[in-house]
Outer membrane protein assembly factor BamC (Pseudoalteromonas luteoviolacea CPMOR-1), 353 residues
Amino acid sequence: MQYWVPKALTLGVVLGLSGCSVFTNDTHQKKNYRVHESVQVPADLEQPYQDKEFQMNVAVYENDAEPQSFRPPQQVLTLAKGSWAEDKEDVARIYFDKNDGIEALDDFIWAAVEGVINNHQSSIENDDRRNGKLTTGWYSIIEAEDGWFWETVTEVSKQRFEFTLSQEDHQRTASLEVKLVDYQSDKVALDGMLRQQLEVRALNEVVAEFDYRYRLLEVELRKQQGVLSLDLGYDNAGNAALITLADRSTVMERLSNFLERVNFTIIRIDGESNEVLVRYKKPESSVWDSIWGEEASTLNLADGDYTISVGVTDDEQTSLTWSDAEGNVLDAKTMETLQQGLVTALRNRGLSI
């Protein structure tokens, strides 16, 4: 009944052999043997016997590998609206589509390039924009590390770049390519990887500047729309009202969205009587809002419910007459204050009806 004994022995042998198989030939690499210096015996004493058969020479091996750069290639960042890049391109290039509000796409891109140059307090070395090329002066993409205030800050390297702008015949798409034309550094040698990183980083700076400038342009466009959308006037009954050039149907469609963004709550929209019932409550501003510059716009208006009557004036403009919860029409002074507050909100937030 001891039939399990041979099987157990066989299994043990197999496991032992499989365990030995995990050791590779590198185990017996000569670098893995460590030989220590023999005991130093004073010269005036008898030296110990050393069998030459077991004598090993002391060797020193360099274990530190050559320093290598393991940083991945820099990636083109399509941060700006309407920007895009081709996959697997071996050059630093980005494409821009002509967004709304941009009159000349090439001029807008060149302005972004100039903005980057000015940010680096550099200059234009060669201006050949007629042929789509611009070469910069010297500036440093890699910022120097901060040291103590008495230490002299030195640049790691400085570079000069050539920007090439190509535009399609329809002038609604343009590409911008960056090429490193000169490099100086006493510490870091230029190789293929570093060249690619510098070129793409220079391009990404222009993309960020393009995005910043277009955001400002969008705000200005919205501000202009907002300033022109509300005026102070009177309705056909002679009551003080807000006047807009948009037709009544358009105002009824967009008014609720506009008011909600300036802290009103829409309670009811009555399309038959052309009235909008709203509720206003002043927003609470926190310390964090003031730190980040996002303080909510407040109106000089008492909290409560209001009815907005949307009518048409004799000159075909649209009037917005406001009444409080008791049905009393707001007087001219209150409407003037309300109009100024709404226009300020339009300017600050780039809103329009």
Q: What stands out?
A: Residues 83-142+154-222 form a domain with the Alpha-D-Glucose-1,6-Bisphosphate; Chain A, domain 4 fold (CATH 3.30.530.50). Confidence is low (pLDDT under 50) at residues 17-24. Residues 157 and 186 are 7 Å apart (CA to CA). The longest strand covers residues 173-184.
